[in-house]
Amino acid sequence: MNEFDNLSVSDEGLYDWLCQMARQIDLAVAIINPNKGYTIEFVNQIFTQTTGYKEDDVLGSTLSLLQGPLTDMLNENSIQESIENGLTFKTSSFHYRKDGYAFWNEVRHLPMFNQQGILQYCVIIMKDVTDSMNIESLIELEREVYFSLETGHPLENVLRNICKSVEITFGKKCHCSIVLVDENDRMINIYGEMWKDLKELDEKVLLMDMKDNRKINKPLILKDLEQSIYHEAYRPIIDKYRIVSMWSQPILNSEEKTIGLFTMYFEQRAEPKTIEIKFMNRIAPIVTLALKYFDQKSAIHRLAFCDVASGLNNYERFKIILNDFTANQSMGHLYIIEPGEYQNIIDLYDRQGGDEVLRQLANRIQNIPSFADSIIARYTHSAIIVATRLSLREMKIPPIVAEQFLSEPYYIDGKEVYLTLKIGTSSFSSRINYIEAVRQADIALSSALKVTGTVIKNFNMSLIESVEQEMNVLAHFARGLKNSEFFPMLQPKVNLMTGEIESFEALARWNSTDLGVVSPTLFIPVAENTGNIYKVDLEIFKKVLLWQKQRHDAGLKLYQVSINISPSHFYNPAFVESSIALIESYKIDPKFIKFEITESVELENVIRAKKIIDELQQLGIETSIDDFGVGYSSLSYLQELPFKEIKIDKSFVDNLANPRMNAVIKTIIQLSDNLNMVSVAEGIETEEQHLELKRLGCQVGQGYYYYKPMLIEQINELLNQQLKTSFSK
Length: 729
Description:
Blueprint lengths: L2 H22 L3 E6 L5 E5 L1 H7 L3 H4 L14 H12 L4 E8 L5 E12 L5 E10 L1 H21 L4 H15 L4 E8 L5 E5 L3 H5 L3 H5 E2 L4 E2 L4 E3 L12 H7 L3 E8 L5 E9 L7 H32 E2 L4 E2 L1 H13 L4 E8 L2 H25 L7 E7 L2 E7 L20 E3 L2 E3 L3 E8 L5 H15 L6 E4 L2 H22 L3 E10 L5 E12 L3 E3 L1 H10 L3 H21 L6 E6 L1 H4 L4 H11 L7 E6 L7 H13 L3 E7 L4 H5 L7 E4 L1 H5 L4 H16 L3 E4 L5 H10 L3 E2 L10 H17 L1
Parallel strand pairs: 20-21, 23-25, 25-26, 26-27, 27-28, 28-29, 29-30
Antiparallel strand pairs: 1-2, 1-5, 3-4, 4-5, 6-7, 6-12, 8-9, 10-11, 11-12, 13-14, 15-17, 15-20, 16-17, 18-19, 22-23, 22-30, 23-24
């Protein structure tokens, strides 16, 4: 026996061994012979079950017999090239069974070489992964739907994109449509590439089951449209698009009421398999979710920016526009206007009378030519606020406008009412931020309210006093940091259901040796403006960690503490690394630290913020969005950024008794629940607020109703007392 004969026997043994192995595994296997044109020489039983081809159909053929109309030929060429070069690979390809059914095929190649390094056989291992690929595509579609709605895309664009996405990813060539109906079962609109043609059809054809004249409330599968009772009604569609089959799936709301139909139209006879029915069943809920999320977002937008009682913009909307004014280098005047007789009007005509007076007052301002470029909003229950942009020349003219409001009476319930007006004014520009400008106008209004008759007070000396105060704080700030005068006060966060303390928020405080107790409203702006706010953050952070370490060393229970992080600190490139290093230096589990981030963080860069939050989350550090609802920016990124907690701003809680504000809070709580976030209400001060928030489903509360911010020593006493109480029970 010569060397060639020995090689042949060895090869035959290899082939037999491969065939035996292929018969034993529970995956589809094909053995390809590279010496015979890369044709298939053996397939196991699972291969025939997966592809529908018999063994005789396959042997002597190539893998190209699995290709079909939607197969990616570039990927197929790469597969063939890898086989011919003896390279291992793993990929997914869109293949077809013998009966024309398409499926996602996970294909792996294991090249087999002899002792001389010559490629002898190619082992192809395959697996039907259609279900998992469908799930991945639907998860991606759902993410795109959320992102599109959050970034302000119109609902019609989102629904059209759902149709387009299904057409691209589904295993059969198809056309898709979404039909929506109102509560009276009347068609609202149609979405998808065929919408114009479908709109020409009888509405009953699109929405009704023609057999018993009831709206469709279950899937409708028409394998042969020509042979169905719909064939004449759908004739224009059948002829134009060569439609053969149609599958329709009802879109249901949370009450299981049909609010629309999702329909797929096929140019070939299509009988759905189980996996395709599962796919359709998953599409309809995505449409439902899009509609529900859009409604929630729209409701929050309306409730968050409109004062329903007066019809005016609310203060949140005003702040956003005024901030835009100053950001665009605009300058102008602010007016806070309050009728001197407002309380008398409330006493005589109820709150509706006060709302009507403010509405008429705003209308008069809007009719003044010099106020054409202005924004008007309700400031408090008794006052409106106005910002008007002026030129540099106009800025030199004292803003005296009260005469414009006094020439005509106001009317409430048909009765004439004459008013005096108290007006506080200030100026805004790029050098005076809008918060400070509003504060100045408010101080001026307080002065005007002390004077009888109609009066305007312009802010002047108060500004000088404020600057002097800030400069004094700045002069002592560095010394305060050096002497470690900044310290945390902890305010408990309480489980609304159990009343137990769940965690704490650390609030920065400053007890200056020279100035005494300095308000955070004074020193925090100074710290931010001088770029030293991160030093305050770190001082508070370290003292919290020290407290946690002391409790750990004493064998006492540890609680999670939220640390407020300033935007400049948050975006520092070393923030994540330095934070985890600091936590580890105190040997504290990162789960006991949470970073609270204000809305202004997002305004810099959503992508950067998401990356930082993801890194913190991977390290075990949770994040919270603080003061939610103060600005509209929250809604545009809440779903995109993976926060674990949402804190409802105190200004909302203060107005919880207002039905409209109550609806806002309820919607926010529902939204946080949908996004798997913990809802925390800030500034709870009364039992009524506590009970109502509990009823609305808010999970955690914080405020003076439970506990005020306390020194660490006081917190220790509180926790020790609670521990003794629990033992005594």
